[in-house]
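Most newcomers find our protein records easier to grasp once they have seen one. Read left to right, the backbone structure tokens trace the chain's path through space. Once this layout is familiar, the rest of the handout is easier to follow. The record below serves as our worked example for the rest of this section:


***
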Amino acid sequence: MNDDIGVWLARTGEALASASRWIMLAPVAALGLQWTIQTHAPVSYLATAGLIILVTSLLLQLALMVRIEFDARILKCAASSSGSPNEALATFDEALLKIGLRSSLPGARPMADRVMGVTRLVRYLAAVSVAQLLLLLVLGIAS
């Protein structure tokens, strides 16, 4: 792969991952609002179940955000490395292997595959956020 394309793929993945931080803000704000309403309203099983689901999905969002942030930093390092981004990521994969965060090296993963992986995580994050907002809407209508 052309090194210039690899650099731009890495930069694009890093930018996408960094921008995804904002996706989580709306559900967190809505959850805070729902929590406030819940504490001042009579207890309902539907609202309690909804709140448990929301908190659980918030933990899933947090795990996704940690992984996306990790990928963003790695892609940024790859894009700014002195060699090609693919060489930098091959060295990164070897480092993961040495510290036990990877069980084996199946071969070099192309930069495009890595960026598609980050894109998939961002889509999952957006889907969880939309589901949370829909649940909050349903809970708001039901209460």
The chain is about 80% helix and 0% strand. The mean pLDDT is 80. The two ends are 56 Å apart (CA to CA). The helical segments are 3-19, 25-40, 45-79, 85-98, 111-142.
